Amino acid sequence: MDLAKDILVAHERIQPYVLETMVEYSPWLSQLCEGEIWLKLEHLQTTGSFKLRGATNKVLSLSPEQREHGVITASTGNHGSAFAYIADKLHCKGKIYLPETVSPAKVAPMKLYDVELVYHGQDSLESETKARESAAESGQEFISPYNDPFIIAGQGTIGIELERQIPELDCVLISVGGGGLISGISTYLKSVKPDIEIIGCQPVNSPVMYESVKRGEIWEMESLPTLSDGTAGGLEAGSITFPICQALVDEYMLISEEEIQQALIWLMEKHYHLVEGAAALPIAAVLQNPGRFKGKKVGLVLCGRKIGLPLLQQILSSVGG
Questions:
Q1: Average pLDDT score over residue span 75-81
Q2: Which end of the chain has fewer CB atoms within 10 angstroms, the N or the C?
Q3: Percentage of the chain with pLDDT > 90?
């Protein structure tokens, strides 16, 4: 596949179902950095995250017969909500496998749509393994959260919007989990502006892509609990995002839990945006090292907004005064 061209195709394909999210200038960060800092408000996307782009592109790439036969995924987060929404919208028979231990709050958005929810196993790995087995047995299509070129191409459509919305962009900061988002955005932006800087942001408690790239192979490691739960966890063996990140991501910045929390509070206080921990990583990276971006025009991708009320209460209770 020519991924940059596939991103252009995806952009046309998904337009009827996906919002073009706006960018917002940050006078506070711009002043702090003595540069020009823009926020890409992808947390305002339908279903609350960028995941809708990839899921929509993948499902629309299937033949009518494949969609009628049904699609399967496993997810307890943003991908599951996006999958449920687009499967329902396209009248496609959808099934989501969930661990029996999943939080009811995470399942609630999926229940809004006409998809089948199947509970299996005690963790996400067990439910995903079962979903893949079920797809193989039934001949239905498994929709991966990130390890699929159509998923990556869908996420890459953010790059098209960034190029148009922020001319002469020097640098983009992007949260990294499985790598689908940064792989898509970096592929497109590097294809039209090879000298643009792509910086990946990961929590110190789960820096799997960073460690894998550093070691030159997909690295298995234990992830500690993190406020950035949307980026936590490992990479699939043979993930197609890994070589893309090796080739196109210029730098990684690792963010502590305290820095994530401070960035969440800062964003609420200064821009009145409520986001999830993963979306705060690029904000935290700039607050952590403003001199790194002096004189640059920078885009920060805010990837999602799913933050639970108990966690939000915990974060706000730490604010003095």
A1: 90
A2: C
A3: 85
Q: Given strand 197-203, what is the order of strands in its sheet? A: 23-25, 36-40, 297-301, 171-175, 197-203, 251-255
Q: What value does the mean pLDDT take over residues 74-103? A: 92
Q: Please determine, for residue 157, whether its predicted confidence score (pLDDT) is greater than 70.
A: yes
Longest dimension (CA), the chain: 59
Q: Please state, in angstroms and rounded to a whole number, the distance separating the CA atoms of residues 308 and 321.
A: 23
CA-atom Rg of the chain in angstroms: 19
Closest CA to 219 of 237, 244, 231: 237
Beta bridge partners, 197, equal 171
Question: Six-digit token pair at 119?
Answer: 């509970």
Site of tokens 């920078």: 298
**The predicted structure's pLDDT at residue 321:** 52
Cβ–Cβ contacts within 10 Å for residue 100, how many?
Answer: 11
For residue 255 the two structure tokens come to 């963010």
pLDDT at 101: 82
Strand 36-40, strand 23-25: pairing: antiparallel
